[in-house]
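Same chain as my last thread, 91 residues:
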Amino acid sequence: MMDILADLAVQFDRPCDQVNFCCTTNRFGKIAPGSDPHTATLFCANCGARRGHLSQGAVTQITDIVRTFGAPDAPIILRAEGKPAPAPRRS
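reply #2:
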């Protein structure tokens, strides 16, 4: 199952990512295989720092979508469950 997700690009948009990021304002990462008990691990695309894990439910859902429609052209946006997207920042 993880082979289909390995190296897919993600964009971090969880509440913790609004204040806790590793590379200036970089919020992009990659999905990689996890180790027990985690199915998948998230890493920063810039520095390689570990940014968290994906739940089994998220892995199953993303895998089903990729199998049905193919890999996405744009990064998958990861948001906290049940949280609305934050309002866009104004310059």
